[in-house]
From TrEMBL:
Keywords: Hydrolase. The keyword S-adenosyl-L-methionine does not apply. It comes from Agarivorans gilvus. This is Exopolyphosphatase. It comes from the Bacteria. Pfam families: Ppx-GppA, Ppx-GppA_III. The keyword Hydrolase applies. The gene is ppx. Residues 28-307 form the Ppx/GppA phosphatase N-terminal domain. Residues 316-486 form the Ppx/GppA phosphatase C-terminal domain. Signal peptide: none annotated.
Length: 501
């Protein structure tokens, strides 16, 4: 099936969000009462998934076992929740491991709910959403910084409107592994770590400085830990300042050890704390930050509000698709005609093909809007250009697998079926694609032509189109396209009969 987060009735009383981060797994549970979310419980476990990421992209056995044991415990809490009331996402490490599908399947089995991987840009958007909902805004724009285990996200916006977002390949676990894995700290290693972080920041710095901000907020565990260490050691005032960061770095330099007990620092965060401080110090320097306030909310709260929005039919994904279609000058009238034909065909076969009509309808609407985006690049093989765009562009609200499903539909909507690139084992996606292919054929020309009464029947891999004989005679090009389609579909063992009435 598709991982489109099926919608529940707004009467749902409990929602949950789980962030499978590179350092920690964070679970948040809330009651939904009178249109408001009231946090009931928060649970965090330091799994340090990113520490087990090997050079070849695999995950070592220790990290795998820590993660699955944690998911077993979280699963006990989540199995009581209704389908669609829980959103689970993976971030940097799950974006990086080569066997992510194996991990995701095991995680879903333990949790009893779908697990998805989100892009770094989507992570930044959700972090900003979480902070914006829980932190009362001041006048003007605000900068939000989140240092995770494997990546760091920057987001700049005003109120609920996000203007800039960036995900950088540096985090507390990643920097610790790269520069301090043997536990030793020296001036040379600190300088190399700082240069590396500055290089990661360089492409983003100019845009953020040009926009400017009135308030700087830091989210997640690293920044809250830095704020606590600074306060308890009197390195700076209540908020984080550059002098406080430099005081912490001096402590490590004097000790010469990475695993340093500091007043206010928890023992479980101790092994990777220095890596996070190095990242934050580089951010302060690059963006000329004077003061940063540690916010209580982060990605998991953003997930919770995103889920609430979807349940209240304020899903951001349709507008993301619409903006992408407009960006690539898609013919909106043709897209609408294709979508209307898709819905007509789907309604006739959803039951016999055992398709979830709500999910499939939504996916086909988005595919109808996007199947032509490649035309803005080149007419020749435009479906290939379009698939690349859809899979790799930043589509707010979408997980990676959702974008891959959309890209697969765009790639396979015409010509010979791309059996090697399309996930043929996903029968629901394949059947949705067959519906899209037929809808495109019936609306091939840009001119509006009257469609006949189309009767579409399907069971297993047998399909039948019942069409008026006179209409077929009057539309020889469409007839030829349908006959070609018969040949294309036979190559993936689907049979299409064209029955003249």
């Amino acid at each position: 099936m598709f991982n489109l987060s099926r919608l529940l009735s707004p009467k749902t009383e409990q929602l949950a969000a789980l962030d499978l981060g590179s350092n920690s797994f964070h679970l948040i549970i809330a009651d939904w009462q009178d249109g408001e979310l009231k946090i009931r419980d928060k649970v965090k476990e330091m799994v340090r998934l990113g520490w087990g990421l090997q050079d070849d992209g695999s995950l070592d056995a220790a990290a795998w076992n820590r993660a699955q044991a944690c998911l077993d415990r979280f699963g006990e809490r989540l199995r009581e929740f209704k389908p669609g009331s829980v959103r689970v996402v993976g971030t940097k490490t799950l974006r990086s491991i080569i066997d992510s599908e194996v991990f995701l399947q095991a995680a879903q089995q333990r949790l009893g709910h779908p697990v998805e991987v989100i892009s770094g840009e989507e992570e930044a958007r959700l972090i900003y959403l979480g902070v914006a909902h829980y932190q009362a805004p001041t006048n003007g724009p605000r900068l939000v910084v989140d240092i995770g285990g494997g990546s760091t996200e920057l987001a700049l916006g005003e109120g609920m409107e996000l203007k800039l977002k960036e995900s950088l390949d540096m985090g507390c676990v990643a920097i610790t592994k790269l520069f301090f894995k043997n536990g030793r700290v020296s001036k040379n290693r600190l300088e190399k770590a700082n240069v590396y972080c500055s290089q990661q920041l360089f492409p983003a710095v100019e845009d953020y400085l040009d926009h400017g901000w009135q308030e700087c907020l830091g989210a997640s565990g690293t920044i809250k830990a830095v704020a606590k260490v600074c306060a308890e050691n009197q390195f700076c005032d209540a908020d984080i300042q550059l002098a406080g960061l430099e005081a912490i770095l001096n402590c490590y330099l004097e000790a010469g050890e990475c695993n340093l007990p500091l007043k206010g620092l928890s023992e479980e965060r101790q092994p990777v704390f220095l890596g996070g401080v190095v990242v934050l110090h580089a951010i302060f320097q690059a963006l000329n930050i004077d003061t940063m306030h540690a916010a209580e909310s982060a990605l998991r709260e953003g997930l919770l509000y995103e889920l609430k929005g979807r349940l209240e039919h304020t899903d951001i994904r349709p507008s993301s698709v619409q903006r992408l279609a407009e960006r690539y000058h898609v013919d909106s009238q043709l897209s609408e005609r294709v979508d209307n034909t898709c819905q007509l065909l789907l309604k006739q076969v959803a039951e016999t093909w055992d398709l979830d009509e709500l999910e499939t309808s939504k996916l086909l609407t988005w595919a109808s809007l996007l199947f032509l985006v490649g035309l803005d690049v080149a007419h020749n093989d435009y479906h290939k250009h379009g698939a690349y765009i859809v899979e790799n562009v930043d589509l707010a609200g979408f997980s990676r697998i959702e974008q891959q499903h959309l890209a697969a539909l765009v790639l396979a909507h015409r010509k010979r079926f791309p059996s090697k690139q399309f996930p043929l084992d996903n029968s629901a996606l394949l059947k949705a694609c067959l519906v899209l292919r037929l809808a495109v054929i019936f609306n091939r020309g840009k001119r509006r032509q009257a469609l006949p009464e189309i009767q579409f029947r399907a069971a297993e891999q047998q399909m039948s189109l019942l069409l008026e004989q006179q209409w077929l005679q009057n539309n020889p090009l469409t007839r030829a396209d349908l006959e070609n389609e018969q040949q294309y579909l036979s190559q993936i063992d689907y049979n299409l009969d064209i029955i003249e009435l």
